[in-house]
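Aim 2, interim progress. The first record below pairs a target sequence with its structure tokens.
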Amino acid sequence: MSVGGEPWPSEIRLLDHGKALRVSFDDGASFTLSAEYLRVRSPSAEVQGHSRDERKTVGGKRNVAILDVAQVGNYAVRLDFDDLHNTGIYTWRYLRQLGEGREADFQAYLDELAAKGLDRDRPGEL
């Protein structure tokens, strides 16, 4: 049942021992998002900051896993990662945006890492 004309999730499932999350929507769209991608694009203030200039590039998350998916009201989920990050609230709309833009956005993340001398295996953030 879409709400307000927006697709609504029909299934959210952890895959590969928490290394990925599959999100399916009632309009037939389905996205498999890696835990690494979800972690580095967390909507939390810790990662996003309070403005675009404050957004952090987080390295060293290639092997992060999702431990738990907790529903937040009727509009989102909170993901608990094994690196103890759990403050991001992923709305249905944000999960959809991440799914639709994952290839270009993940490449942008890789480019940010390279530009800042960070990598996917060493922890660090700028």
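The second target in this work package is listed in the same format:
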Amino acid sequence: MPDGWQWDQTLFRGSAAYYDQGRLPYAPGFADRLVETLGLDGQGRLLDVGCGPGTVTLALAGHFASVVGVDPDPDMLAEARRRALRLGVDNAYWVGARAEDLPAGLGVFQTVLFAQSFHWTDRDRVAATVFDMLVPGGAFVHMSDHKEPPAQPAPLPHPAPPFGRIHALVRDYLGEVRRAGQGVLVNGTPDREDLVVERAGFEGFQRLIVPAGEVVERSADDVVAWVFSRSDSAPHLFGDRRDEFEYDLRGVLRDASPDGVFAEQLPDTEIMLWRKPPQ
């Protein structure tokens, strides 16, 4: 868990409605890579902790007998249910809970996955609990965007979103220290998941980079949705200045691209996984 920060239920309040439109997708081949690496055959159970609107849960649902998404935000789970219904996924189950509430009577799993959510948890405690929830030989999977840019970035047909100016505007409204729920992240979020997971008893570390690289067009509405999908600029943080902030944000975007069209290169996806030792 980030230094000096306490979780509260407003961390992503109001963000679920913007998540699907605002967030860039993971690399298109991430599900196939996991299927191959883990030898998934449509059997067993997946637990996705901090599942948000079910992005990864639903992408993998066809490769398990059942999948369970856990998230403390009711709006995220409502969006996940809508997406499952729209996609015709009938083996997904959604549970309102924090990672620290596990095992929560959910049983045992072949795979437990955290997609850009592990850093919000009491990591040592949660990793130890997950160890007990996995079958022998089961996999602990951590997914995130790959932070290193591509060696040869693709040329963009439109301006990139002006991220520097966007973050500066957020700081003007919310202060210099990054906000998160009712607290702040003085030192950012923690890393070195490898040390935490291995302390819990997992072994056999593997690191996979799934390439993406496609260039996608983004509208001004998409970029606004991205801003409001983030914990450090969730809609509730602006209070009664939310509309004023969005007006100024759209002004920044018009300055950067008068026609309101942007382009971004999709980041690669980084997957780290470990195994619970077999008995």
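Residues 16-275 form a domain with the Rossmann fold fold (CATH 3.40.50.150). This observation will shape the mutagenesis plan for the next reporting period.
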